[in-house]
Amino acid sequence: MTQNTRTRKKSSLTVALVLVLAAVLLAGLFVLLPGKAAVPFAPQGAAAAARTQPPPEGATGKALQQWADEAVAAAQAAGLNTLLFEAHPGNQVYYQSPVFASYPGGEDPLALFCRTANAKQIAVYILVAPYTAGVGSMHPTKLTFTPPEYAKGSPATTATLLTLGDIQYFDPADKSYAKLLVKDLAYLAQNYPAAGILIQDPSAVSPSVEELTQLAAAITHANAKTTAGLCDFNELSGRRKDLPALVSGGFSLLVPRIESEDGSLYADCLAAKAGAVWPDTLSTLGGEERYYALATANKLPGAVFGTLGSNARHIGAMVTALGNPLNAESLPVPGTLQIGTPKPESTTTRENCLILGTSDPAQPLLLNGSEVARTTKNGSFAVFVPLAMGDNSFTLTQGETTAALTVTRNAPEPGTGGKTPTPDTSLNTELAGRTIQITGQIASALSDPKSDGAISMTLKEGMTATVQGTVETLRSGKIVKAYLLESGDYLLVRNADLLDAPLPAPALSVTGTTQSDRLLTVQLEGGSPLCYPSRTENTLVLDFYGASLGDIAPLTALPEQIASATAEKTEKGARLTLQFAPQFAFWGYDLACTDTGMTLRITSAPVLGSDPLKPLAGVKVLLDAGHGGTDFGAAGITGLVGGACEKDVNLALAQVLRQRLEQLGATVTMTRTDDSFPTLQDRYALGGEQLPDYFLALHHNSIEFVKDTNTVNGIECYYFEQESLPLAQNLLSAVSVSTGRRAAAADTAYFYVCRQTAFRSVLFEFGYLVNPAENESCFSAAGLRSAAVGITNGLMADLGVFEPLA
How far apart are the C-alpha atoms of 464 and 459, rounded to whole Å? Predict the structure, then answer.
């Protein structure tokens, strides 16, 4: 089995996307003309292609035609106009060859494939792995080729094999084999209407430029209209220096495998690089392997992606992404010597001090005469220095420019000896039986009144509850009172009004329902009692405390949405259980109080559109650029010297992310589009008004200046509702891949904007602005694009458009 065969069998149900924007090389729609050589069929303008799998082993007749039909149909469904067929994967061919052992039974899968694809206006490129011979031990090390019956007069030929590990290769220097290879490639170019032939270059045997260019010459001499290309080479193969010679030697299409994010690894090696426009972060768009296809005679390069699923939306997302580069501008980083922190005259009781600032990256930076190691492009720096007791003087120097500061370290002052008050944690029943009403937009029912993180339920403004009593708790050294609720949880007194008179027990009933798009609205009248919702994949349970539940008949008249609705009395109130119909993809819910009752809104999952080039059509996203206005967020290194800070990079990222999401068909709104400051309540309310499918809060991180921030790095994602955990995990995986930053595990947090139940909501931290390298990465245009691409890929993984990267 060849190495290529192993790869094919591992991914026999998948295709790999290659987007080759070769408007010059592939320009024009060729017309079949009379003559000996086959006339290549090429796509009009740019080619969007996918690699196909070979036919099933031993397939003939109708089975072969079915294979070809299915491949072409899959290409059409994905909006492609070109297919790549691996017709010669090593010592195996899928055509009738004058040199190699031909496909059995006289069948010609390649010819059939070209006819089937061309009939549907789809071009074909032939992939050839000319030097791979096989896997495992092969003896002897000479392989004899017996010519087919129709190759009259051709003598049997013996070729030398090279064994490297468990793979055997033909020796590129073997002139006898080279003649056979040239003959076979010329035969392919002359007899098959393929747009081009791509030679796979194995780094293991490193064929020379001369050995490769004679293959290109064989192709183009046999048929001047057939493109000769070279693929599957990378930096390790040493081809960088050879690219100009390969281009001048006849390879008009190069498809290197590239690991660098922006493509610069090969861009400066191309013979025709002038005016090249690089797509953004293609290496992050998914797939097991990433490639770039470079049309050397064209201004805009394209890309080859590795083994992908046959998901047409996945392919379409990449086609759209490559054809629509993101516009992003770097946020400025001052290239001058400035100290951001600490202040010139500072005092502390700590043993160390963190000095943050900017500098001229072109000059050495000295601290008290010793050079400061910097790893940044634009000169940002962080130095963690020890402090002696008393005055510590520091002078930073660059050429004739200096910046000085003095940090005075004092001994910690002894404690004041003040007495900490002791709360009365026993239940005070003086207010038992009284009614309270939630006053804040949301409030927390706490299992432990001492801890803000002990949240049992998010309560909504207007809900009423009967108090069982009050307890005291200690918070920040002060005694604070909390109500004990009927549910057994606690509510801080400051979050509710104590009503003058008890309200009658709520008697709820369902008075009506409305449907619109993906929203089902249920109106309940008869009060707004304390409610604890819970959910599973297709069930919603509402526990109402201190209430009764009457008529729910309107819910039983919705067979398309609700399979069953039941009301039952519980020990502490009433319970409404909704079992959703199989065809109703339950997404989320929201409960709000009205003057006379409650409104329950139930959302269904987004329905993706049918256009593979717009894989996010039907998805609504609300982007929340954190902070803004007078709320600067994390100052970061540049913010400390009067430059851009967290609020600025949050907004810049939101704008780039909006571009990418809209390019892929999503409907996108933002909580702010300028340097304004929506309150947390504003942001939360906007989510409730718009009911997006996803709410993404975009932030950047910081820490207290108590350690060396050069070592603090990475991305983080927080969620509150369990349904948002998969989203957080998908986003972390995708952004880590796209940015190269370390990802922490998804974590729960009670951030205000994450406490939404009608949609998925997370808060994402994209990097630490007090880390010089991460600050500059986050601020750069490439960093903004990488983060936007990562978030987009994470969303698509959450929706099943991409396979999850984790």
Answer: 10
